[in-house]
Amino acid sequence: MASVTSLSDSVQQHLASALSATRPEAAGADPLLRRSDRADYQANGILALAKKAKANPRELAAEVVARITTGGLIEDVEVSGPGFLNITVGDRAITENLAARYADGERLGVPLKEDAGVTVVDYAQPNVAKEMHVGHLRSAVIGDALRGMLDFTGERTIGRHHIGDWGTQFGMLIQYLFEHPGELAPAEDVDGEQAMSNLNRVYKASRAVFDADEEFKERARKRVVALQSGDKETLELWQQFVDESKVYFYSVFEKLDMEIRDDEIVGESAYNEGMPETARLLEEMGVAVRSEGALVVFFDEIRGKDDQPVPLIVQKADGGFGYAASDLTAIRNRVQDLDATTLLYVVDVRQSLHFRMVFETARRAGWLNDGVTAHNMGYGTVLGADGKPFKTRAGETVRLEDLLDEAVQRAAEVVREKARDLTEDEIQERAAQVGIGAVKYADLSTSPSRDYKFDLDQMVSLNGDTSVYLQYAYARIRSILRKAGEVAPAAHPELELHAAERALGLHLDAFGDTVFEAAAEYAPHKLTAYLYQAASLFTSFYDKCPVLKAETPQQVENRLFLCDVTARTLHRGMALLGIRTPERL
């Protein structure tokens, strides 16, 4: 891999050198470089330095300019405003840097970070024996994108799907199966739709008996005890539910075009044996105390409506364990056994208080320390067109499968309308890629903490900030490259660039910086914004700069080169987000 220094970093280094030469006490100062409408980059760090040195900002800026050598990387630099530096990068530098990225292949010259660690990403948390609904969408899509970006920067990610596979309802389900054997077919004999049909049937039937028969209810409660104590027959029937549910989970994730590894599905049950030890350790350390028979942790800074401390219940008065115990045990496992340096939870923002208390408890116990950080990536709600939580017309929660199927159907209409040389099979294949991509992009282009409206008409639109717009931009570029025939893309640094070429080139050079920023801030919407801008700048370039009909053969090759770098950047960026880019649309 050939690491390429971005133009912004190179300019930053030149400015820092000039600053330290002008004012030795400024060695290592940050020029605070940023993109500007008036120039390629603008540096405003001189203002702070001038204030510290009690100097005139414009005069100091002029001294710095006098020490900057122009004609190579920096073509021109001028003082503006109260002491800003407006910097223009040379055409040759832009083309040469892009050529170096182009030569690096799929990584586009983006380096791997030196201090990479291990991040455990807790996401896509469906519940055993229950259908996945629209509420599961964000956790899965955001978590998958974060893993893509983090992996690309060099971080090693480990997925954890903390599925709901333990608790009271399983006593009800398992007891029903004991009394009605054969209700569930072996998981290997069914597909995803059949698996959920079986689970739904058993769940509804067991719930009906549970609500109507007090004796059955008591037997079901005893079955929970048998489950938690490891009774062999009970565990065998519990495993049937888990296996059948996994068949269904995999069918939904396949529609979402997401890979879910079986060894990364580690549900609440996996921590059952470790929860008593977690409770014992917390009590011995004095982190948790007994209160009315329960083992709890109190927080002076976290209070309820009556201004009383809100406790975190580790163990109930009856000896049972809840979410706090399993989450704390999971932290111990992830830090001590998986060597995690970061724990990232992609969980509904409504659980923020729970995780705030869990993290603080883990810190008090020493399981989270200076070498391990934990972050709750709380996400907002998916809303309907009316601005309320997304529901069916009957007021029920929307099944995730139905939502994805409708997205693919809408996308098929768009693809079919634009298709010229695609067969019906190809249209259906593209429709899946476009429809699922549209759903993912709409989610990812919104800041995770915000709610967003689920509007399929807008999602599959060819206009505006949508994945369809980006996919068509990519397909258009691939079409241009095919039409070029034997004329190969080639960089020509000696050529003067059109303003639209410069704007596109500078933006493409910032791909790596953007991915690192988006990954560090857990902000996939920053990457989607970058990719949309890249597609928009390409459209402007294509409108203003003839490619195959450029004035000279060298210009044709150079513009094909710009096209190909753009295509590679769009393809790689969308792939990091889990979205496909079809070669033809």
Folded structure, characterized:
Its EC number is 6.1.1.19. The chain has 585 residues and is an alpha/beta fold. It is built from 20 helices and 13 strands. It has helices at 7-22, 45-53, 57-66, 91-103, 137-153, 168-179, 192-212, 214-228, 232-255, 275-285, 323-336, 352-365, 400-418, 424-444, 456-459, 467-483, 499-509, 511-520, 524-544, 553-576; strands spanning 33-35, 41-43, 74-80, 84-89, 118-122, 156-160, 289-291, 294-297, 312-315, 342-345, 373-376, 382-383, 452-453. The protein has a four-stranded antiparallel sheet. A four-stranded parallel sheet has the order 6-5-10-11, with helices on both faces. It has a three-stranded antiparallel sheet with strand order 7-8-9. The radius of gyration is 29 Å and the shape is globular.
Kindly summarize this structure in a few lines.
This protein is α/β, with parallel strands linked by helices and 585 residues long.
Oligomer: single chain
Taking the sheet with the most strands, its summary is:
4 strands, antiparallel
Counting H and I runs of at least 4 residues, what is the number of helices? 20
CATH architecture of the domain at 400-576: Orthogonal Bundle
Tell me the strand percentage band: 5-15%
Report mean pLDDT, rounded to a whole number. 90
Task: Determine the fraction of residues in helical runs and give it as a percent range.
Answer: 40-55%
Computed CA radius of gyration, to the nearest angstrom: 29 Å
Q: How do the strands of the widest beta sheet line up side by side?
A: 1-2-4-3
Tell me the span between the first and last alpha carbons.
32 Å
Uncertain spans: none
Q: Based on helices, strands and strand pairing, what is the structural class?
A: alpha/beta
CATH class of the domain at 400-576: Mainly Alpha
